[in-house]
Amino acid sequence: MKAITYRTYGSPDVLEYGDVPEPKLGPDAVLVKVRAASVNPVDWKIQAGYLDGVMDAVFPVIPGWDVAGVVERVGVGVTEYAPGDEVIGYVREDLVGRGTFAEYVAAPVRTLARKPAALGFEQAAGLPLAGLTAYQALTRALEVKPGETVLVHAAAGGVGSLAVQIAVALGARVIGTAGEHNHAYLRGLGAEPVSYGEGLAGRVRALAPEGVDAVLDLIGGEALQLSPGLLAEGGRLASVADGAVLALGGRYVFVRPDSADLTALAELADRGQLNVEVAAAFPLERAADAQRLNAGGHTRGKVVVTVA
């Protein structure tokens, strides 16, 4: 099968497109014919070696954790899926090796859910990691309740745009930080936008004079540091971007595969409460270009790669 691989840590320049063996299929996995996969910052960070201290890499590595595709065949112990089923998955295992930037991926059942009918394959591929990150942060780390006010930093990005929609679906009022060029987009998602930069705290306080109930930080740095001062009494803080949140009394969130959570996201999409913005799509052989665009950090929504 065709796949993207890298044989050593490095920049997008180390990516190669070519033939690799089709993955073996374990008893609790399904072989998914990949239709699309999405790029996440963790992909190129792993590729650069930043996570070498916590995750073993089996070279050559096929990058990618997100997938949308069609079940080709199932392992001997699988009863949940059958050939022809359309699925999405956050296919993260305990080591890095066989990812989703390929024509086929062997995906453990625990990483999958049925693809929402309301989304095309490109959109659906952008949902798993980003959607699960937002969903788990909002529902578990922050325990957002109806009627609360939530501040989302970097609200127009891949995770942020999904977090806004999920928080709205949970019944929350949402304030989202973003560049002015994305304010109309955020209003369309149901958020009240505020601009980055000097004076940010004052702009948030103008909208929520008594403080916000929860802050979801997706950018770290200065935005995170000023966040505790924006919380109402008893307010909660979580970050997926900066471990410094722990010293500020907040929660650090690292997403994990969860079929039930992924199914909940798919149901939100099918009810029309969750949409995935696709910033750009690249054919598999141009995965390096997709990584470079994602690493630039200024895209609205998701960058995906497609497989013919």
Provide structural commentary:
By secondary structure, the protein is of the alpha/beta class. The protein folds into two domains: 2-127 and 276-306, Quinone Oxidoreductase, Chain A, domain 1, CATH 3.90.180.10; 130-252, NAD(P)-binding Rossmann-like Domain (Rossmann fold, 3-Layer(aba) Sandwich), CATH 3.40.50.720. 26% of the residues lie in helices and 30% in strands. The protein has nine helices and 17 strands. The protein has helices at residues 41-47, 121-125, 128-141, 158-169, 183-189, 200-207, 222-226, 259-270, 287-295, and strands at residues 2-5, 16-19, 29-39, 57-62, 66-74, 86-90, 96-98, 104-108, 112-114, 149-152, 173-178, 192-195, 212-217, 231-239, 251-252, 278-283, 302-306. Strands 3, 5, 6, 8, 9, 16 and 17 form a seven-stranded mixed beta sheet that branches. A six-stranded parallel beta sheet has the order 12-11-10-13-14-15, sandwiched between helices. The protein has a two-stranded antiparallel sheet with strand order 1-2. Helix 7 (222-226) links the parallel strand 13 and strand 14 (231-239). Helix 3 packs across helix 4. The radius of gyration is 19 Å and the shape is globular. InterPro entries: ADH-like_N (IPR013154), Chloroplast_QOR (IPR052733), ER (IPR020843), GroES-like_sf (IPR011032), NAD(P)-bd_dom_sf (IPR036291). Residues 10-305 form the Enoyl reductase (ER) domain.
Structural class call reads alpha/beta
Biggest sheet features: 7 strands, mixed
CATH topology of the largest domain: Quinone Oxidoreductase, Chain A, domain 1
The number of distinct β-strands equals 17
The CA-CA distance between the termini, in Å, is 12 Å
Proportion of residues in β-strands = 25-35%
Number of DSSP helical runs = 9
Shape: globular
Helical proportion?
25-40%
* Corresponding CATH architecture of the largest domain: Alpha-Beta Complex
Number of domains: 2
Element order, helices and strands?
EEEHEEEEEEHHEHEHEHEHEEHEHE
CATH class of the largest domain: Alpha Beta
Mean pLDDT across all amino acids? 97
CATH homology superfamily name of the largest domain: Medium-chain alcohol dehydrogenases, catalytic domain
Report the C-alpha radius of gyration, rounded. Answer: 19 Å
Uncertain parts: none
